Amino acid sequence: MPDQALRVTVLGSGTSSGVPTIGCKCAVCASTDPRDNRLRPSVLLHYEGRNVLIDATPDFRAQVLRAGIERIDAILLTHSHADHILGLDDIRPLNYHQGGSIPVYGTEKTFDVVRRIFQYAFDPRPSKSSAPRVDLRTIDATPFELFGRQIIPMELPHGDANVLGFRIGNLAYLTDHNDIPDAARAQLQNLDVLFLDALRHRPHPTHSTVEKSVAWAQEIGAQRTFFTHMSHDIGHAQTEAQLPENIRLAYDGLQIEVAG
């Protein structure tokens, strides 16, 4: 595949507790289908010889080792919930091997939480312990350029909070949302690949359901839509069998080449 193409690797497709869920013996948690084994939600974008991570989950170390990733050039954060930022400490070996800080893009509200949780990483006093080295770069819904590609952030409601979705070329990645406002929908036209939150079938106050996301996918009309941030209520094979052909469930390790 040409290096200038955009490739997506799904590092994790599960919800905040992952699948299997601790202490659960349901059919999905006990499933032998590897697609039902879901780490916390994150994807890696590869283009122009660069690796851009969306969200650093508590499973970051396992995800990077499993995927054979040896370099991260930038990180985009959708929001500050634990399942999306707690892996930031695990970038320390990458700091060492790459020889510097890694730029991290997120809202100022997200960075307020990052600075509080990882206070030791921003403490100017000398320390004998290592800390992740990050270059925090504040963004909002204004498009910006990253390694020769335009990144279009879009604000999405996640219950009472807002998160960022991202469009890069003909790919859009939306997770942890319970609606898609008109302003975001206007940024989602003419897509090849769309990722949508689809936590479960039953309604949830801060996440989308499979049924809602099917309706959004059909309205938006991307060539291919993949659901992510899925709980143990969703068995891969049986759920996917009921979906339209151009709507699939993401799974850990899935690689997608984005057209255009």
CATH architecture: 4-Layer Sandwich
Strand proportion, as a percent range, falls in 25-35%
Number of strands: 14
- Shape from CA axes? globular
Q: Write the H/E string, N to C.
A: EEEHEHHEHEEEEEHEHEHEE
* Computed structural class: alpha/beta
- For the record, the count of structural domains works out to 1
Poorly predicted spans: none
Compute the gyration radius: what is it?
18 Å
Number of helices: 7
CATH class: Alpha Beta
The helicity comes to 10-25%
Which strands sit side by side, in order, in the main sheet? 6-5-4-3-2-1-14
The name of the CATH superfamily reads Ribonuclease Z/Hydroxyacylglutathione hydrolase-like
Describe the sheet with the most strands. Answer: 7 strands, mixed
The name of the CATH topology is Metallo-beta-lactamase, Chain A
Spatial separation of the terminal alpha carbons: 13 Å
Mean pLDDT over the residues? 96
